[in-house]
Amino acid sequence: xxxxxxxxxxxxxxxxxxxxxxxxxxxxxxxxxxxxxxxxxxxxxxxxxxxxxxxxxxxxxxxxxxxxxxxxxxxxxxxxxxxxxxxxxxxxxxxxxxxxxxxxxxxxxxxxxxxxxxxxxxxxxxxxxxxxxxxxxxxxxxxxxxxxxxxxxxxxxxxxxxxxxxxxxxxxxxxxxxxxxxxxxxxxxxxxxxxxxxx
Amino acid sequence: xxxxxxxxxxxxxxxxxxxxxxxxxxxxxxxxxxxxxxxxxxxxxxxxxxxxxxxxxxxxxxxxxxxxxxxxxxxxxxxxxxxxxxxxxxxxxxxxxxxxxxxxxxxxxxxxxxxxxxxxxxxxxxxxxxxxxxxxxxxxxxxxxxxxxxxxxxxxxxxxxxxxxxxxxxxxxxxxxxxxxxxxxxxxxxxxxxxxxxxxxxxxxxxxxxxxxxxxxxxxxxxxxxxxxxxxxxxxxxxxxxxxxxxxxxxxxxxxxxxxxxxxxxxxxxxxxxxxxxxxxxx
Lengths: 199, 283
Fold this sequence. Notes:
The complex is a heterodimer.
Chain A: H1 4-7, H2 17-25, H3 29-51, H4 54-70, H5 82-100, H6 104-108, H7 122-126, H8 128-143, H9 146-157, H10 162-169, H11 173-190, H12 192-198
Chain B: H1 2-17, H2 30-45, H3 59-85, H4 98-147, H5 152-167, E1 172-178, E2 189-194, E3 201-206, E4 216-223, E5 226-233, E6 241-243, E7 252-260, E8 272-276, E9 280-281
Antiparallel strand pairs in B: 1-2, 1-8, 1-9, 2-3, 3-6, 4-5, 4-7, 7-8
Helix pairs in contact in B: 1-2, 3-4, 4-5
């Protein structure tokens, strides 16, 4: 099996993500800047999707990268890829905020597939690697039924529990669980090559 | 395969619902762990479907300045510590030239202070009322506990610890709530009070069912996804429970309370009763 070092090569200066994280451990500020350049667009998209307000999203982006800076030595490549690590830290912090501020209902009605972002960023467009991955993700999501896409959206981007999704969508809890499991299995099949790059 | 895959997937969904939780109570073998990893990576891929959003200009510099300030603060603390402990210890390795440090630190502090002031004032207003309510509830629990005859000596010590924690600047509270979609004990509630510097901590819980013969409640701290046992107790009808033990480990991400039938368990194997991963500073 390929190591993350050999497969997950960045698209900007070629430095592998794991090497950047190793440099963070040594206090290399430029490595943090490189991770920012590489992932801030992705993380901001995620945080704005979850939190809505850009000001709050920026706060969480700062918190996320500072956590990465302070806790880089905790990163374990056997547990997750760097992009996954960053994404899940950011999501975790954003969901915490979302729950603590009780604004879940404010944003939960926006459906994933029905409200695509159209303000494409020049930096994002330049990032060929991310752009290609985005297209593959969108293609995979388009392949699954809308009701399955909806449960994934509500669970991941709104931090809703399966019970909350059932209540919100007026669907039996068992059906919600079945839809979620089916969606994840289908996505795994469709994104197998993508996952192999990360493992 | 399907049953195992479903179990792994349900685990992933639980992690989505409870950020910070990582595989406590699930002893994954090689193939299962690989599957868990794949689905975890799959979840992390979902944001790639979104159009990238460019942060505002200057944000990167602010983040780097804050990182610099963190480093400078750590170095300053390291110097203080070294001077306190032993004058002969080798000095910690410097990341920045010494003459730049003062200016960098000053610039970073100014940047952080400017950013922080606006956020902090809003935060204070919002959390003040919540914390007052929490303190009122605790005072009621203290009075109720003081009236109880059972375990009066131990509880007296715990109450003293709780009062000390509540009065200490920087103490934090982590609420504990019933775990999962169908909680084992849905009416149970709790909280862990701790001080991030001196590592003192104390757990309070209300509504726990009495333990069956031989079983105990075990407190676990999650550190880097690993569960560290922090102590155990039997809820023999005392309510609320007030419990404290040794120092909290460094880097605690979440707290679990499980009910275990084996006295010397090293990993959570029984049902998870309470869970909490969010903490906030008390007034």
